[in-house]
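step: validate -> pass
step: tokenize input -> pass
step: predict -> running
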Amino acid sequence: MSMEQVLDMVRSLDGSLVLAPVAGSDAPEIAWGDYFFYYAPDGNVPRNAQPYATIVTKDYPDDARSGLDPAGRWRVNIHVGQSTLRELTGTNQDDVVPRDVAEVDVFLPHPVYGVLGWVAVVNPGARTMPTVLGLLRDAHADEIRRVSRRS
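step: predict -> pass
step: emit ->
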């Protein structure tokens, strides 16, 4: 399974905006090469909103335990809420369970934002990709509902 499959599916969703910062853009250099998913039917990054999912392709200073720096490693991160986090990982936000967050093709609490209901999958494969795609659709639909309530 490939990152392009994820990107293609998210781009196909109504009102989807995939922000992909590159060298020379206004985005911080650390974000170059990563992807940030928003609901933005007008094509503009929403103000005062976080992405509902991301793909990261490298280690960040405060998030290096997934070991994403070697070529070919990437991680999809999805806001799913506490209930789905518990269903997928067997843990909840208050559990302090040592985990190998570099393991591939398994659902794990996000190494930094798991406490906020985010799951992460390093290099999704046959075991997780169908669920990853479904969760991305659900997160997109949830974001549409949040935007509708605020307007």
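step: describe -> The mean pLDDT is 93.
step: cleanup -> pass
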